[in-house]
Amino acid sequence: MDLSFSPEEIAFRDEVRAFIRDNLPADIRAKAGRVAHFDKADVVAWHRILDARGWAASHWPREHGGPGFSPVQRYIFMEEMLRVPTPEPLSFNINMVGPVVYTFGSDAQKARFLPRIRSLDWWFCQGFSEPGAGSDLAALRTSARREGDEYIVNGQKIWTSTAHVADWMFCLVRTDAAAKKQEGISFLLIDMRTPGITVRPIITIDGAHHTNEVFLDDVRVPLANRIGAENKGWDYAKFLLGNERTGIARVGLSQGRVSRAVSLACGIEGLDGSLTDDQGFRRRVIDLEIDLKALEITALRIIDRQRRRNDGRPDPASSVLKLRGAETQQASAQLLLDAAGRLGAPLDADLAALGGGFAEAQGAAAIHLGARAATIYGGSSEIQKNIIAKAILGL
Ligand SMILES: Cc1cc2nc3c(=O)[nH]c(=O)nc-3n(C[C@H](O)[C@H](O)[C@H](O)COP(=O)(O)OP(=O)(O)OC[C@H]3O[C@@H](n4cnc5c(N)ncnc54)[C@H](O)[C@@H]3O)c2cc1C
Questions:
Q1: Largest CB tally within 10 Å, which of 101, 198, 285, 316?
Q2: At residue 261, does pLDDT exceed 90?
Q3: For the Acyl-CoA oxidase/dehydrogenase middle domain, which residue ranges apply (predicted)?
Q4: Rounded mean pLDDT, 365-388
């Protein structure tokens, strides 16, 4: 097993690091690590800079407009961005719907959608979860009935991240109510401007408007916007959810939080720096650094296995990365908040304008509260444990 980077991979890491240093706009850099979510404008701006370099669609092969990165390059690329952290190329476009379109879409769909998905001219959101269909996604009930050359869609989606700023939604709908639940599902692309769509905000505990409810009432969707065969949507969704796992450990993000927590603990205006003498705090920093090193090595082992297998299939061991990655994201965010103390408590970003310690500690509470969701979205921790028990431990 080879867990070290080759000289070419190290040169690539240095190239990515230098590109971020030289090209990340100053206003976005100023927010790095201080906000739970970047604004749409920041995500679009950075995405376009990466696209101009040919790197935005980091997962895509060259033939579809991607850079053709190897799994190791993809890992290095993502971790370098998370370490800052920069905004990430929009996952809904790049990791999720893009690969579905170039793998299962028609030539006309590829020509129409792929360039706009890659460039972020069209921002996609993910309409999968429904009330009563989250972990058990195949229980979804949103229906699509055929009428001429259209589907008439009715139902409700929930927790739809960024639906309020999205141009399109990729959506799972039930097209055959009589079939076994996994067999009656289709995969549609829905223009968010279509009459009959209502988006209602869900404001989460971190004070953010990131998630939404989406109501679909007699929404007309052309048959031409269905990807692949009718009633085969579950296959495409499984493929998509497998891709969602790539880079899920987010080691760089947690490492950045630990570093920031240590620098806050060393003393900022309004805090005396005595936390660095606290044995309990020191122990937590060391434990987290050990956990992050173990997670990094686990991620590299899984990549090495993928590199040697080279069949593009997701590895069930990536559930370990999701499970432990989410837990360390939470632990590092908790450490950051504890280091920031009362100065990090305000959710109101305007308090940072007071300067001094408030500016240094900005965002700690929002990041901590936002991280609570990491063990839920993208497949909850309990579901990952079920996969690990079955597919890895053979229980
Ligand atoms: C911040 C955030 C953003 C999200 N963004 C999106 C999005 O953009 N698009 C989208 O489609 N969805 C999104 N989701 C939804 C997310 O995918 C679901 O919340 C997740 O799949 C869990 O489903 P649920 O909420 O219905 O909980 P449930 O499935 O009802 O689970 C409730 C509890 O029961 C446990 N549980 C369920 N089944 C089992 C089992 N078989 N064995 C053991 N324990 C079990 C779960 O682990 C959980 O603790 C988002 C969620 C959050 C929190």
A1: 101
A2: yes
A3: 125-219
A4: 94
What was the pLDDT predicted at 273? 73
Mean pLDDT of 286-308: 89
Query: How far out from the chain centre does Cα 72 lie?
Result: 18
- Answer yes or no: 244 catalytic: yes
Catalytic residue, chosen from 79, 80, 244, 360, is 244
Give residue 351's pLDDT band: very low, low, confident or very high (50, 70, 90): low
Domains and CATH numbers, the chain: 7-89 (no CATH), 124-230 (2.40.110.10), 245-392 (1.20.140.10)
Mean pLDDT of 315-326: 90
More confident residue, 307 or 175: 175
pLDDT at 244: 60
Dist. CA 331–CA 280, nearest whole Å: 14
Ligand 1 pocket: which of 377, 384, 386, 388 to mutate (most atoms <8 Å of CB)?
A: 377
pLDDT tens digits, one per residue of 215-244:
999 999 999 999 999 999 999 999 888 776
